[in-house]
Amino acid sequence: MSTQSPGPEVPIRRIDRILAFTALGIAAASVVCFFAIIIGTATGMDRAAFGEGAWPVVAAIPYWGLPLAFVLIITLLIMSFVRKGRAQSRR
């Protein structure tokens, strides 16, 4: 059973929402692009086809997007801990 704190909740700032939704969007786009590459490979596309058109961008999104989403989530957690710590010290 959880206990509730006696004081009011710490408000969620706009930057926290932006970081959360950005991390979620980048991670979702990375997973979709990852599955697009798997499906493209399973349908018999050769390696030369992945070097043309939009495929280099589709391949780069999971490569750069997942680590970026991880960094954004860690940043969000640190900011949240600092904000809650400051709110506790003011009581």
Layout: helices, strands, pairs:
Elements: H1 14-42, H2 55-89
Helix pairs in contact: 1-2
Quick check: average pLDDT? 87
Radius of gyration: 20 Å
What is the first-to-last residue Cα distance?
Answer: 24 Å
Count the domains.
Answer: 1
**Order of SSEs, N→C?**
HH
Shape: rod-shaped
Helical content class: over 70%
* Structural class determined from secondary elements: mainly alpha
Outline the low-pLDDT stretches.
Answer: none
Give the biggest sheet: none
Q: Total helix count?
A: 2
How many beta-strand runs?
A: 0
The fraction of residues in strands falls at under 5%
Protein name: Multidrug ABC transporter ATPase
Transmembrane segments: 18-41, 61-82
Keywords: Membrane, Transmembrane, Transmembrane helix
Organism: Microbacterium sufflavum
Question: What descriptors fit this protein?
Answer:
mainly alpha, rod-shaped, about 90 residues
